[in-house]
Amino acid sequence: MNEISATERAPTAADTAPDDREEGVETIFKAHHATMVRLAVVLGADDAEDIVAEAFYQLYRRWRQLRNPDAAVGFLRSVVVNLTRMRIRHIQVARRHVRRAEPAIEPVQSGESLAVLRDDQRALVEAVRHLPARQREALVLRYWLDLSEREIAKTMDVSVGSVKVHISRGMAALTRKFEDHR
Q: How many CB atoms lie within 10 A of CB 74?
């Protein structure tokens, strides 16, 4: 009597047939791949395609653990944000360990990042890239993906109040930056 019958519990992604996973991930890939690449680029990833590929792999691996396949896009977005954050941290640590005697090497933008950004967006994107990571993430998720504060909090794994603070501080920093250029 302690077991819950299949009709009494909500269906999960694990209840779907194996080929449903392939179809589900393929459908999400077709609809959201370009958006996820752009998200990674705007967040500052130098290898956006690799990050998005890893995110879709994680989605594929965890498909059966999703309670609701509709949550897959949110999961995917969170993975892209987290992988980008981890990649940027890794680059920062690696740069600290480079000998100071070596000449500084300017980072080269990848082909996809150049294709994604139009000329009129480059100044804004460059200013956003210089923001602290959390402010950058909050602004991109809010104004580029048009997510609600609750969705942003879930994606960033912070409170709604923290999201409001990050957005406010990020907007203030961008305002100061562009007022200086006038």
A: 15
